[in-house]
Amino acid sequence: MNETPTPRSQAKADRRQALLDAAASLFAERGFTRVSLEDLGSAAGISGPAVYRHFDGKQDVLAAMLVDTSTDLCTGAKTVIESAATPRAALESLIEFHVEFALGNPNVIRVQDRDLDSLTDDDKHTVRALQRSYVELWVSTLAQLHPDAATTELRTRAHATFGLINSTPHSGRADSTRAVLERMALAALDA
C-alpha cells in the first residue's frame, strides 16, 4: 500500500533529486574528481555539509545516480516489453524508450562514460549487472524477431544501437534528432 508522502518526506525526496540533478550537471561538465561537496551543495541551493543529510558523501551521490539510472532503464524496458502486443511493437517501443532516455539524460550518459570507474567495486558490479540485464531484455526481444541469429550477434546489434543512441549528448542538437535516431536504430537492429 503506497502512502501519500508527508510534506517533509516529499521535500526531502525533492532535495535528494535536486542534488542528483546538480551532480549530473556538474560531473558531466567537470568530471567527478573535480567537483567538491561544496560545489554540489551550492548548485542544489544548500551548504556542502547539508549534502550529508541525503548522501554519505560524493561517492554515494555518484553511485545513486548510476545505480538508479540503470535500475530505471531495466524497469522501464520490462514495462515496455510487457505492454507490447507483438515482438516488433516491443522493439519499436524499446527504441523509443531508449531514445527518450538519451535525450532526457545527456549528462548522466556523459557521467557514465567518463566516471564509471570512480565507483566502488561493489557499486560498479551492481551497475554492470543491471546493464547486462538491460541488454538481455533487448536480446530476448530481438531473438523473437530473428530466431536464426546467434545470441552474440543480437547482443552486438543491441550494443551498437546503444552506442548510436547514446552518442546524442555529444551531437549538441539532441532535440532535432529523435526521429532520425529512431529510424537509424531500427535499421541497425534489422540489419
CATH class of the domain at 58-190: Mainly Alpha
Q: How many β strands by DSSP?
A: 0
**Radius of gyration based on Cα positions:** 18 Å
Query: Regions with pLDDT < 50 over 5+ consecutive residues?
Result: none
Fraction of residues in β-strands: under 5%
**Class computed from helices, strands and strand pairing:** mainly alpha
List the helices and strands and how they pair.
Blueprint (H helix, E strand, L loop, with lengths): L6 H24 L6 H7 L14 H26 L3 H18 L1 H10 L5 H25 L5 H16 L11 H13 L1
Helix pairs in contact: 1-2, 1-3, 1-5, 3-4, 3-5, 3-6, 4-6, 4-8, 6-7, 7-8
What does this structure look like?
The protein has 191 residues and is an all-alpha fold. The protein has a domain at 58-190: Tetracycline Repressor, domain 2. It is 73% helix and 0% strand. Helix 3 (58-83) runs parallel beside helix 6 (121-145), helix 6 (121-145) crosses helix 7 and helix 7 runs antiparallel to helix 8 (178-190). It is elongated, with a radius of gyration of 18 Å. The chain starts with 6 loop residues before the first helix and ends with a helix. The mean pLDDT is 92.
